[in-house]
Every structure is written in structure tokens, then in C-alpha cells.
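Abortive infection protein, Candidatus Roizmanbacteria bacterium GW2011_GWA2_32_13. C-alpha cells?
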Amino acid sequence: MIHSFSCKNFYSFGDLTTVNFVVNDKAPNNNGYFLASSDNRLSKIETVIGPNASGKTNLLKVMPFFKWLVADSFIASPSAPLPVKPFMFGEQKNNSTELSADFEIDGDIYTYNFILDDKKILSEELKKKNKTNQKTTSKKVFSRLWNEETKKYELDDNIFNLPKDFEKLLRTNASVISTAIRFNHKESQKILSFWQKVETNVIEAGWIGDHLLPNADQQLLEALDFYSESENETLKKEAEKLLSRFDLGLKSFEIMKEKKENSISIDASIFHSFGSQSGNLPIRYESSGTKQLFILLKTILLVLDKGGVAILDEFDVNLHPEMVLSLFELFIQPETNPHNAQLLFSTHSHRVLSKLDKYQIVLIEKNEKGVSESWRLDEMAGVRADDNYYTKYIAGAYGAIPKL
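C-alpha cells:
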């Protein structure tokens, strides 16, 4: 589970910005929160609200980029640049980017820090905090620091027990974890397992559903391919149940997958029933909203089934506001979220503000210098627990609205 993450000099964010899922005892005692094994109270859900071009997508990029660093950076070409950009409209464009994440595995809280630019990782450090009956202790697991004079890393293995000859494989554009996994390093596999449960529709270029991106049309095909796999049959049935419950006239769907010589053809037939009338339609004739639900449910059901974090940009695209509420309600109710999976999403469907607490709302806007700034609503003075957040936000009381 994620506790918090932060970034500095990351795309449109110049100063240090943090998204925090940790709450105190003042947060309501309801199903929107849970007590983790570390005895920290965490929110299951947070939404990011703000005007167009305020930096919402950039904020959501932090954890997907972390996932890439931890899991896949070693796969990249040794000469490939790191897919990250600093804030480009000031002196900071020549400075490094700083990233940090606090996450929990089996009651232990890990803090993972990076300092990097698009050429190399300059600093990398992992710490672990253990809680015993007597006290809480924090230890450095490992660290590495780039020495510009020697053109080498100063690696402190500490308690990580990295394998022999590890440093020979360590590169400037790959994380320690991503490299150590190649040695079947047990502790690295443990860290990797957390980040592999981060599911998202955000890539380096932005929201993957943007039709200006070349891979946007792949989303639906990937969702259909996911539902076609035998190991996902239970999740397919759950998707059918939810789609039927959402009153779309849809009762079930069948995936047709055909392997050809150099490619795979995939399509879906949707069974509809209206009173005494029923029949099948190819998925291409379904509405944009129905197709979007197929795509979203793939990510949502996967995370709810195994636990983890779903990071979803443009959560409300092509969906009715009531549908958006129904989808994030899946994360709140224990019956549908037995593993306390977490959801971070951006939306312009501001009615969600009436269903969330001030500890679950992140506001974001750009200042006069074009720098994105974000804050959690409970950090603002004078915001009461019984305020109508939707009404006050629309009225401009909290900022983070378009200046028209």
C-alpha cells in the first residue's frame, strides 16, 4: 500500500510536491479509510481536481515512472536516456529531478528516494522502518551516489546483501532494484512485487487514452485480450456482472481471439437483452462510454482482486457522473475491496467532491510562473468537515478553478 509520494522539478512541478494517503485520527471513521499493519491510517481513495493544463496528469506520472524505474529500467538500452523532464521554464531546467515514495510491505515502511536527470541516476537510496513492541527503528537498506570525479558510483550495500559482481552490471540509467532482479535477489523481488501491483493508464507522454497519441486505439484491444485469458475468467464474470448492474442493457460478452501467422485478431460480441428481445452486437457498435467501462474495469478489477494501487487519469471521460461515483465506490466498500486496494484518479466530474472527505481531495493549479502547485484540502485553514466541498469548490473558495 502507498503512504505518500513526492516530486521536485518534475515536468510542471518546480517545488517539492507531496501526495499523502496518511491521515490522522480526525479523519472520519468510515469505510473510506483503513488501518494498515504499520498502525497508520490510510485513505483508500484520493482524487486530483484542477483546471485544464494545471498539471494533474504530471502529478499522476510520478508512481508510473517509479514503477518503470524499479521494474523495467534495466531492460532499456544502456545508452537510452531516462524518460523524465524537469520544469522547463526557468533556471530549474538545468537542475536534477527529485522523487520519493513511502510504501508499506508486510508492516514495514520503505522510503525510496531518487535524484536524477535524463542522462543518469545521480543518487538512489532505500530505507526501511520496522515497528516492534518496544520502538520503531529506521535503517538504510542501500544507497548509491554518483561521483563526478571518478565517474563511478559509491555503493553502500549496508543490509541489502547484493550478490557478487553486482556492480559490474549496475548502469547509470537502471535502478539498483531493476538490476538486482536479474540475479534473482530475494529482497529486490519483494520490492518489485509492490510496484508490479501499481496499475495505470498514464505513460510518459500523458494519458494513454488521448487520441492524439499513436497507441490510444490499443486500449480496448488490450482489455479484450485480458478478458480472453483463462486465468482472468473470474474477473471477466465480475466485469459482466458490473456492466449488467450499470443498466446498459448488456448481459454478457464473448471474446473471439484468432491467431494468424504473424498477428492475432481479437474482437468481442456483446449480448444485450431488453424485455423479451435479445441479441448480439459487435463491440465496435457500442457507445464510447461502454468501451471506456471495458477499459477501466480491466484495471479496477485487477487491483481489487490482488490489492495494489490504481492510478487513473481522466477517470470520467465518456462516463455519466453517477457512473463515476459507482466505480470509485467499489474501492470504498469492504465487500468489493477486501485487500484495501487504493485509487488515485483525476476527474472533471466534480460531483465526487460531495462524496469524499477533505483528506481525500487534492487540488492543483499553476501559478503566474507556470509552476504547478498542489495541496490536500485539509491543509487549508478553515475547511470544516461538514462543508459542502462541491458547492464551495465551484464557487471558487478553494482555488484550483479555471481563470476565465
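Residues 218-292 form one domain.
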